[in-house]
Structures are given as C-alpha cells and as structure tokens.
Amino acid sequence: MTASKTKPVTLLRVWAIVFLFIALKAVGNLSLAWGMKHFPQVMSANPIPYIEAMFNPFVALGVLALILALLTRMALLSLADLSYVLPVTAIGYVIAAFMGKTFLSETVSGQRWLGTVLIFVGAALVGSTSHSTTSVQIE
Questions:
Q1: Rounded to two decimals, what is the model's pTM?
Q2: Predicted local distance difference test score (pLDDT) of residue 2
Q3: Quick check: is 138 in a domain?
Q4: Which domain holds residue 39?
Q5: Is 4 exposed, middle or buried (0-12, 13-18, 19+ CB in 10 A)?
Q6: Quick check: 116 and 92 in contact, CB under 8 A?
Q7: CB 120 within 8 A of CB 89
Q8: Is residue 28 part of a domain?
Q9: Residue 138: which residues within 8 A CB-CB, separation 6 or more?
Q10: What total number of domains does the chain contain?
Q11: CA-only gyration radius of the chain, Å
Q12: Mapped to the 3 state alphabet, what secondary structure does the chain carry?
C-alpha cells in the first residue's frame, strides 16, 4: 500500500478511536459521579467507604468505562501525537458540562460555560491539524 492510501484509513481509525474514547470517558465520569452522589457516606481518608462504594453498580460501571477509556487512549497514542490527542479529547470536558447539567442537575455558572466554550474552540482548532507529525505504519 502506498502512503497516500494509508493516510485516509489512518485518519478514519484515529477519529473512530477518538469518538470511542470520548464516549467511554463521558459515560464513565457520569456513572461514577451519579453513583458517588447517591452513596450514603461522605468520603474521607478511611479506605473502607471507597471499597464499599466500588460495589455500587453505577460506580463499578464508571470505573470499568474509565479503565476501557484508558486502554482506548493508549491505542490512540500509538496512532497520533500526544500534542494532538490530549487537546482533541478535551472535547469530553464540554460533554461532561452538558451531562452534569442535564443528568445531575448541576448548576453551571457563566464562567464555567465560557471555559467550556474555550475548550471547544481549542479542541476544534487542534482537530483541524494533522494528527501525526511522524509516519505511522498500519498493518
């Protein structure tokens, strides 16, 4: 295969993994937050409540989704530059703000929305650049 035929496949694969990572991270954080907000104890330095919280189905789902997100990020970093991956996946913070407001009834201040818009603009700017400054071999 020539380099020109490899690039579109690589770009498609990169974006598919970016979307998978963002979805896993969003679901994991939402589930974890939901489970912890409904956990009867306030967390402290004592490790026992943390272990008990792990048995909450929402917390367990959140932890599992975040572990899968980490593995997905590892795959993504094998295909794209760190300086591309981290800013582009920051769009997950925008999704988190919307999900926190929508599903957790959180109050999101104007300053937080402004910061969220800045994150979105930065992620869009980085997303418009090449995902890799070095050649990546896909097998």
A1: 0.78
A2: 46
A3: no
A4: 3-127
A5: exposed
A6: no
A7: no
A8: yes
A9: 6, 9, 10, 13, 79
A10: 1
A11: 18
A12: CCHHHHHHHHHHHHHHHHHHHHHHHHHHHHHHHHHHHCCCCCCCCCCHHHHHHCCCHHHHHHHHHHHHHHHHHHHHHHHCCHHHHHHHHCHHHHHHHHHHHHHCCCCCCHHHHHHHHHHHHHHHHHHCCCCCCCCCCCC
Separation of alpha carbons 136 and 12, rounded Å = 13
Please list the ranges in the chain whose pLDDT falls under 70. Answer: 1-9, 134-139
Any domain includes 60: yes
Q: How far apart are CA 103 and CA 61, in angstroms?
A: 16
> What's the number of CA atoms in the CB half-sphere (13 Å) around residue 21?
23
Q: Which tens digits make up the pLDDT trace of 49-80? A: 888 888 999 999 999 999 999 999 999 998 88
Residue of 75, 39, 42 whose CA lies nearest to 55: 39
24: in domain: yes
Q: Give the largest Cα separation in the chain, rounded.
A: 59
